[in-house]
Amino acid sequence: MRIPEETIAKIKDETDITELVASYIKLERRGRNYVGLCPFHDEKTPSFSVSPDKQIAHCFGCKKGGNVFQFLMEIENMSFAEAAAKLGEPLNIKIDTETSSVKESDMTLIRMHDYMTDLYHHLLMNTSEGEKPLQYLLDRGFSTELIRSEKIGFAPNMSYFAKNALLEQGYNEETAYQAGLLSRNEESFSYYDRFVGRIMIPIKNHQGHRVGYTARSIDGSEPKYLNTPETEIFKKRELFFNLNDARKHIRKLDNIILMEGHLDVLKVKMTKVQHIVATMGTELSQENLNLLERLSSNVTIMFDGDSAGQNATLKVGDTLLKRGMNVYVQKIPKKMDPDEYIETYGKEKFEQFIADEQQHYLHFKAEVLRHEAKENDMKFTQNLTLLANDMKYITDSLTAERLVAAISSIFGVDKHALSGQIPAPVRQKSDYAVPGPVEQQLSLRQKKERYVTRIMMTNREFLLEYRETLDENVLTYGPYYDIIRGLCAYFEVHTVFDLSLALNYLDPALTDTLIELDGMSIHEDVSHSEINDYLEDLSGIRNSENEKQELNRRLEIAERENDIELQIKLTQELIELNRIYKM
């Protein structure tokens, strides 16, 4: 069923594209617009621009973007109906849609996870098998409300529980294996449950679909945590645990807290601190790093307080620092993790700790390296030199000044001497003007076609009057012809041109061209006489092309027959033809 035009217009008018885009990437104001790193391709210099006035977003690099519908369709891999339904929800506009934003094979795996999540959760909350793991969670301070909202469950100590449950639902063993829910004996080719006797913590992807689990043993069996293996829907390099829920808080605070443990994140979610995600391992992939850069300028690392957590903090901190990000550390007391901190000191003390004790990463690193050097003079010098070299990644002068004072104090050296050892700053990002559309080298004909298209774009009466004339022989440049056809459909429904709304009638590949046309200035008093002159001229150029082709054909014959006099005559005619029409 087609969504009514008035509903589409209402959703578009009542959805702020700046707020929508800002829920996915960090934006900075540049004049009347906002800019940020494009969420659709990897880049260092932001080229993604958001125009609140026109209600469009557009990348001048990869050309992706559009209005609120097109942006959401692209970033969430949704159909138009699904995007409209999602945008309509906060506006209390209900749109029925049966379409799926995910390919069917992936949706099958997601449905299997949804079914098993409900089943595991039921076992935890309502059966005798779940009493022990439930009590374990309650004893660790997890509330019943959190357990229900996160749908934490329990996989019983049975080898074929999930297998039989999925078979009863009509799924086959191989598909369940591909989903990561079953394991397989490669000798007998028999299938059995991957998760047995474990607390099941569902993992959602960034669109909110359940795609895997972190499974915690409660009987001392190893490994303590068993994750879903890599599957078509569960790719660790693309995921952060809890990002779907944390995203809006991250955008609001322009800060993201990285944690190690998934249970730690769940415990912290019971406090007022909500801008938290967990890594899927201490190695950050290129996809992880790109995502962090788009989400926030500031990343705070809060790993465990043991030596392994300290080493992981140094590794991740160096990586983020060299990417040009502002990196901080929430230094958990030794031999504690965030969960234990909350259990020991309480929620309010933890919230105060987050608010008060954020430390710059290089301050943290300086303390670690000074302790490591002890009384070893050679290591002392090496570590201090290493920190001085790290300072080149600090481009803010005030931050650099404070860090120099802190590091020199920690090492007991003169801050002026330390400053003299710091290399020139490496500027990953600079103040920039977002690049505009690349100026194409258009022929005279294309420039005339562009001008005619621009006139028709904002003048409904002219377009409907000349629509039959504006055929492929007049508009020979494909994008302009396609735009005119789309605008004809648009003006059948709407009386006034709206760039954002008009994009719904065009192929997304034409977005860049339409935006470029919208930026063209034309005088307001365009007349029928002017349009007729352009159309006659374009038709004349078209006719001259035929004449030109005929002259070239005759010139080839004259060259084969070695008729020098005719060659000269035909060449002069071609030169004159090109001069008249400047082809």
TrEMBL record:
Q: Identify which cofactors the protein needs according to its UniProt entry.
A: Zn(2+)
Task: Tell me how the cofactor is bound.
Answer: Binds 1 zinc ion per monomer.
Q: Which SUPFAM superfamilies match?
A: DNA primase core, Zinc beta-ribbon
Toprim domain segment(s): 254-335
Outline the residue ranges of the record's CHC2-type zinc fingers: 38-62
By its UniProt entry, which SMART domains does this protein fall under?
Answer: TOPRIM (SM00493), ZnF_CHCC (SM00400)
User: Which keywords belong to this entry?
Assistant: Coiled coil, DNA replication, DNA-binding, DNA-directed RNA polymerase, Magnesium, Metal-binding, Nucleotidyltransferase, Primosome, Transcription, Transferase, Zinc, Zinc-finger
Q: Which residues form a coiled coil?
A: 541-568
Q: Reaction catalysed? A: ssDNA + n NTP = ssDNA/pppN(pN)n-1 hybrid + (n-1) diphosphate
Report the domain of life of the source organism: Bacteria
The EC number(s) attached to this protein equal 2.7.7.101
Q: How does it assemble?
A: Monomer. Interacts with DnaB.
Question: Regarding domains, what does the record say?
Answer: Contains an N-terminal zinc-binding domain, a central core domain that contains the primase activity, and a C-terminal DnaB-binding domain.
Task: List, alphabetically, the PANTHER family matched.
Answer: DNA PRIMASE
UniProt family annotation: Belongs to the DnaG primase family.
HAMAP family linked to this entry:
DNA_primase_DnaG
Its biological purpose: RNA polymerase that catalyzes the synthesis of short RNA molecules used as primers for DNA polymerase during DNA replication.
* Protein's name according to its UniProt entry: DNA primase
Natural source organism: Jeotgalicoccus nanhaiensis
Its gene is dnaG
